[in-house]
Amino acid sequence: MTETIPQLTSYDAPAFEAAFATLADEVRQQSAALTTPEAQENFRLHWLGRKQGRLKLISDAWLKSAPPEARKPLGMRFNQLKQQIEQALEAPTAATATTSAAVQGIDITLPGLTRHPGIPHPLLETMHEVVRVFHHLGYSTNLGPQVESDFYNFEALNFPPNHPARDTQDTLQIAGQQARPSRDRLLMRTHTSPVQIRTMIAQAPPVRIVIPGKVHRNDAADATHSPIFHQIEGLCVDTDITFSDLKGTLDHAMKALFGSAVKTRFFPSFFPFTEPSADVQISCIFCGGTGCRKCKHSGWIELLGCGMVDPAVFASVTEERRKINPDDDAYNPEKISGFAFGMGVERIAMMLHGVSDIGHFYSGDMRFLEQFA
Ligand code: PHE
Asked: Which of 15, 54, 174, 179 has the least CB density, counted as fewest CB within 10 Å?
């Protein structure tokens, strides 16, 4: 590209018009051929090179002999031309992109780079599955704090102070609480049941909620225990709720989770906040009830605790509600009744996926987690 410097015959507008139109054409034609990075660089040097660039040579030549009043319009024309050149350099053509890919040697026949999207943790997935079953029955979800007060975790649930039933919960206490009244002392919640109390204080019946969440107990870790684990709580309070509603609801939920062939049975049990209380067993999902190692040859697997809400719980709730409205009578056990249930998420997840050690869920080991992808 060695064009000569064009001559400017006069310094009026029509002469400018003609001369710069010729230059603009020159730029346009050359920029159409900018298909490689090398061609682009040559074009840049040819026009914008600091000493021998065509723009510099022409503007030097024309401005040198220009009368003073022509300098400004001439300068503006050169600026426009410069912009045109820069735009041609900024917008690499599709041809440039393809050619430069080829220059870098991209082999489109190689397998692509796979991006692995994240998946929900198997415990979270199990919680969602259980919660979904109850959402279909018209339940909604409530959550509560993991650091809880003695009142919500124990007292309002009819665990009197120093009652031996508290020992079964292996509570992790928060340090430095001795100066506080016992009901305000903080602890890590040992179950999701305190959210029953929080919900009823905040809301009059009808109540239908499930409460998924983390709970903490001072348990030594082994293949089936962990000091931090997950529960899903359920609470239903309304007029005329009976034990058969509880049985029907849980029987339906177990069939929805484990398959319609699953049977349930209820055994008398004890929880301070339910009366009567029951433990629920389901027919073994591995052997169908004939007996195997998983069900210790009994044909049944214990899965959850439940019962009818104890009137003493309604009494605690009413006492709290009356601090706000002295006439409150929403949880009068003469008018309403309810049931509650609670289950361990890890246990269900272990059964559904055949996991033999609870520790796998918390290890963060990709070889374990990837199996759920
Ligand atoms: N909160 C009880 C536990 O953790 C389970 C339960 C919940 C029992 C609701 C009955 C009703 O052991």
From this structure: 179
Q: Are residues 334 and 211 in the same domain?
A: yes
Question: What is the domain extent for residue 293?
Answer: 122-372
According to DSSP, residue 216 is labeled E
pLDDT single digits (tens) 166-204: 877 789 999 999 899 999 999 999 999 999 999 999 999
Which pLDDT band, with edges at 50, 70 and 90, does 104 fall under? low
The DSSP output letter for 236 is: E
Ligand 1 centroid to residue 144 C-alpha, Å = 15
Closest residue by Cα to atom 2, ligand 1, is 342
Number of independent structural domains in the chain:
2
Residues 144 and 35 in one domain: no
pTM, two decimals, is 0.70
Residues with CB under 6 A from ligand 1: 191, 193, 233, 271, 274, 305-307, 340-342
Name the residue at shortest CA distance from atom 9 of ligand 1: 341
